[in-house]
Fold this protein.
Amino acid sequence: MDTDHRTAGQSGVEEDIMDFVKPTTWEEALEARASVPGAVPIAGGTDVMVELNFDQHRPPALIDLTAIDELAHWDLDGDSVRIGATVSYTTIITELAGRLPGLALAARTVGSPQIRNRGTAAGNLGAGSPAGDSHPPLLSTGATVEVASVRGSRFVPIDEFYTGVKRTALEPDELIRAITVPVARGPQQFAKIGTRNAMVIAVCSFAVALDPHERSVGTGLGSAAPTPRHATDAEKYLADALPWDSSEPLPGNVAERFGELVAAAAAPIDDVRGPATYRTHALSVMARRTLGWAWEEYRCA
Amino acid sequence: MRLNLTINGAKHTADDVWPGESLLYVLRERLGLAGSKNACEQGECGSCTVYLDGVPACSCLVAAGQAAGHEVVTVEGIGGGDEELHPVQEAFVDAGAVQCGFCTPGLIVAAHNLVERTDEPSDEEIREELAGNLCRCTGYEKILDAVRLAAARKQEAGT
């Protein structure tokens, strides 16, 4: 691998010494991560480079993961898809929309074509922003995050991955290797509120996944609390309330009640993108609508 | 650090590159390829769009070291030799799709990618493909005209 020390800088002034490390194997990447505390992994660069361009962060090193071939692929692993850490949103949209419809729908709303060509779901996880578009579908489908360090590998259930605003279960010496997402066994939907269709950070977002096999429901809320989270009560309510054996429209006020329970699970803040009251209301509307779309797909299948 | 880059088919070497430097900075400030524009530096505006291994990307969000060993095509490489315009560039001229011109290089790359890959793109497809490129002169109608014109001419030429 190449490393280099320089003091010449982009702004023309003296810069802190910084390394650019370009491992070609996973083992080299883990060694680099362990040997340089605070080194920042970079794949699509859609978050990391913004921080560097604006001088908000000056890590001791960048670890470029894009030369590690194995990370750039996805594989079918039993009943799940294992998505390598540098697989782009564009690849998820074009190659995985059939198996992972919820994640593909969310990927479709990320940034712009240029951003989707480079950005990755693993990068979304690494950044840990509660507004990341990947989080709601990963929560609703019960994904698993494969992380590793020189000390070994571990599999973190998505429910345990988010620990705070931009904080995750990732240890300082760990890297995300892959995300494993169960292949959809029923309809999945995603919705996101923003000021336009492109280049939008979610005001709030919501994902729902129906599993007719288990007769269970998964949900995921984005930009609605310090971390992405489930609406657990809404999931339990809907799993019991859905007439799984019927091909009739949703009965009575099931969608409304589901929306209320989703809104009740939120703990949003007021910020520049929107007030908490708006977010809570919008979540109930998105929950109702996405359930409607998912149920139509289920009963008409 | 020293970087060896392939840009518009030619080998280039850049010296004294800071490891956190963007591909855009190397293109403009170290190699004198000022066609790609530097505006937002956060991937919002698309002015710095280049092809990286045939895929449009914001060069401000690519660490220069990531591009080493890969094929970069900038707006300078879209047309033919001897300053000959590509049909997409001609369409922008003919449709009057250029006002201040700052967004134009990025839009040329994005429009080139669309026209090369999609026959008879719908207006929705054009809007979607150009969603990452901002024109603050708000010249979008003429830009849409230019892309329609380029796509129609390509169809007529049967290429």
In short: Residues 162 and 293 of chain A are 28 Å apart (CA to CA). The two ends of chain A are 52 Å apart (CA to CA).
